[in-house]
Amino acid sequence: MIKFQSFLSGSSGNCTFVTDDTTHLLVDCGATGKYITECLSRLRVHPSQISAILVTHEHRDHVSGVGVMSRKYGIPVLATEGTLSGMESICGRFQSSADKISLGKEISVGSLSVRAFAIPHDAAEPVGYRFSDDNSTFTIATDLGHISDELAEELSGSDSIIIEANHDAELLRTGPYPYYLKRRIAGDRGHLSNDSCARLCAMLAKTGTRAFWLGHLSQENNVPTLAYETVKSILSEDGIRVGTDVGLNVLSRYWLKENV
Fold it and tell me: pLDDT for 188-204, tens place per residue?
């Protein structure tokens, strides 16, 4: 059974620990090495036990700690060619894996199968990841500007998923961000709103997904309770009962707040 722990999620940083108790992975490392190491310690995992760091894209909130974790503990880094190239100026030297991530190609990382799929975001070659073992599937899909038919197909059928609920459209519209940034966030290669996330969750629930974790919430343009209630309301309108038919949770911005 695949399990996960979000170490941090949002525009200030992102990192998720994924495991089947045999293979340990990190998806993104957008925090200091000290913070990530402390999170792993709470799980009784030494960083040298991490089989790979899988990177979704090269933005700083996803890669700021990749270089130091890779260099210090010899952890190989897996990403698309475009992402690997874009990371170099931010991360410095890191141990690139002999394997490369190719869209739509399933690879084995230890005991886990991993499939990368394209996501619509303003980065070089961004991806989400789907993890599978003999018993379960788990997907991470954040930084989504919009939902295409192809992306919806990639997400369908996951048992559980971390899905982006970045902003409330009205809070973004009336908030303090400059116009160009509001336009970027709300654009087709920006971030997913609560309403769009909710409609996607309703569709995925009908394809078998039973656990939703809302992630990458904006600190300025969203509120956890608002994201939760928006998604819950639209699920209910579709006859999907939270707590009975599906589970719904919101990821914390930081897992270990005292160590940030």
Answer: 999 999 999 999 999 99
